[in-house]
Design brief:
By secondary structure, the protein is an alpha/beta fold. Among the domains are: about 55 residues; about 130 residues, no CATH class. The protein is built from 18 helices and 19 strands. It has a 13-stranded mixed β-sheet with strand order 1-2-3-6-8-10-11-12-13-14-15-16-17. It has a two-stranded antiparallel ribbon with strand order 4-5. α5 packs parallel to α6, α14 runs parallel beside α16 and α14 runs antiparallel to α18.
Amino acid sequence: MAAATQIVRNNPNSLFYLPDELLVQVVSHLAGDAQTLCSLARVSRFFQIEAEKHIYTNIELLSTNHLHAIIEAFTRRFDRVAYVETLKILYRFHGGLGATADERAVFNSCVGGMKALRSWEIESPYDNYKWDEGGDEWVLKDMEKFRAHLEAASLEVAAGSLTRRGDVGLSKLERRMSTAFARKIVIVIHTHGVSDDFWNLGDFHCLFRHPSLRYLHVSCLALPLDLPELEPYAKTTPLTELVFDECELEPRSLGRILATPKRLKHLTLGENLCNINEGRGANPRLTRAPEAALAALSHVAHALETLVHYDPACIINMNYHKALPIPGAGMRDFHSLKTLRVDMCSFLHRSIALSHTQAPPNLHTLQIRNPRPRIIRFWHSAASTNDDFFEHLPPHDPYTYLASLKTLEFVQGATSEMPMAKTLHITEDEALRERHKTGYKLFKHGINLKVTLEATWRTGLIPPFLHGEPLPELVCMYNAQEIGFNRTWAPAHEAELRAYELEYAQTSAWLRGKETPEAEDYEDGRVVAEKAAKPTEFPETDQLTDSDIIWCRGKVGRSLNALWERMRRADPDDDPRAFTVTIESDEDDEWDDAFDEDDEDLAEWMDAEEGDVEYVLAEELMGPDGHADEMFWEAQAQALLAAAAAAVAQEDDVTEHEMDDGLD
């Protein structure tokens, strides 16, 4: 760095006349603007130190190509290591990765000096079936070095008491909240074994002895049968959230782990559900030993607020529809537990949720999940006993006995390629009407029913989800409270015309990009009157009108189109032209006789594709100004209205003729 200009601090017109505390505040306002901070660092030694505190705050290594530069920066001024607060080691795999072992070793040794480190994410470059191409070196060298740093910062037993080292690297790992209260992940580890996709805990039990760690997320971890090493550390750590993602869990060692936090509030028990191969089968260890699993969970009964369990029992068809009675009080001591999210086959559903005498006394939200139908590695189809919550729901009666329950949510997993994730399947008329009847019965018990899609972009994406992969999203497809149970009924012919009017309005609003149609989209103004009236002015019913069905279908369709487009944009491997606007039709639908078969344009449009779904590139619906070309679509909607009106008029004529008894 060039010699800094001589600074005159007694000049009242100079920035340097200000106290150092104000200058530090000025620099802090530039945090995030790396280019400006680098320029400021060249002004003086004072500004160099203050600017570098922000320049080196966040380090994200997406490629080993960046290692040389960051190592050189640390070598020139080792104090920079102490400024790192967020470290993400996310190297991408490449053929020359083995040649970077020495550089990685140098950088890994620097991690121990990161005294301000608060958030650390590790992702093996050999994940996704690359562990046979050098993954052993990553496990035996890189991960072992990381473990040594964690061990140095963890609690230890000395002279019969617990001690912690002073100001050492990684000793400040914790969960911080930003001004927007967004979660800051602390430690996330996605790695593997020496020659396998799962890694053994081994001496990494130091993760559960860290004196300040509050959030931990580990994936593809295989726990041993027991962990007696953790016994002296019961109720000593501040861990508040723990996520096991696609892990092989053992009840006894799980109990040792759950005994270490003082107040664990959020727990995810994700067993190995998706990483099943010819050498590693599905093994629902917790559901096969429900009493031992509950004994392990009892260590966090006093503080646990959210509990999640993903269970592979459904893969091996353990007759998971039936209740699984177990002796004892169950989870009656879990007074803080408000939210329970479980797979339908989980012992927490079959033994706890289905038994009101063993369920948590203050449970507010119960989410029951059906995992998406799966395709195992090597493209063998997996036998699936999954129900489809969009076709029919399980019996609702057992849930009405849960006195504190306010929300019952059924979550169906699916990918964008699956038929069950299509609008017409989700909103099929009879299934939707039955769903609403169930919602009404639960409503009479003070429970709101939701049916949600757990959407994954592609079939090839399975947990654990790595950096850059689109994460699954929960999208509500049915909300009984939103649809409501107060509505008025019209004569059949008026309801039919009203349905066609609503379909026209939905089509027009969709083309204009609106979330809901405006009042002017309706010709007769009935919708305006309905909007003005209070819901309670209408009678209560569990029935849905045709208009309600069309409204639900339009809402679901818009939500899905927005969802798939959002996921497509987040997927770096996807073709941007692959996103399509889908026009779905039910092959069992019969077209109304009122349609004019001589209308060649309309017939040509309807017969454009003979399959269930016609795919149209989004660009084909766009005019020269970049907006949707409404002319064709408006014409079709108007044709639907005209045909409906003609059918209604014809029906009225027939009715009058039939009522004429000839006495006039």
